[in-house]
Amino acid sequence: MPASARSPASRASAWPPAAFSGSDAPDSGAAPDVATLAGAYSAQLTSSTLDFSVAADGKLTSAGGCAISGKIDGASRYGTARPATFTLAGCGADDGSYDGLALVPAGDAVPAKLRLVADNGSRIVDVYAF
After folding, report:
1. DSSP state of 7
2. Among 11, 31, 80, 125, which has the minimal tally of Cβ within 10 Å of its Cβ?
3. What angle do CA 104, 106, 108 make, to 5 degrees?
4. What pLDDT score was predicted for residue 127?
5. Element (H, E) at 12
6. Rounded to whole angstroms, how far apart are CA atoms 91 and 93?
7. Which pLDDT tens digit goes with each residue over 107-119?
8. pLDDT tens-digit map of 73-115
9. Exposed, middle or buried: residue 122 (CB in 10 Å: 0-12, 13-18, 19+)?
């Protein structure tokens, strides 16, 4: 039966999968060391450009119109990602406090150096930073 024809109940029973293999495995690689993420980044949000920095301790900072403040947690990990909490201000519709993950992009997203995926209960941001 095609996946699109399965009922929601049958899709729900398929998670979590019994086994992962290869690059599908959540722990198949190491989460990035926060210190290796240190540097300056630029990202395009819904209606703003966000220029920000990551410090060696994971602190997120920026100056200017669209700003971020927060932290990438270097002590915890979820598979190949690190937990991140941050606030966006002056960024229009994306303003708010978010909880999510920081990871190093792979595959088609490789030109990006950092990805932040987070939500605030009513909005999701998926930030590809270069």
Report:
1. -
2. 11
3. 135
4. 96
5. helix 8-13
6. 6
7. 777 789 999 999 9
8. 999 998 889 999 999 999 999 999 999 999 998 877 778 999 9
9. exposed
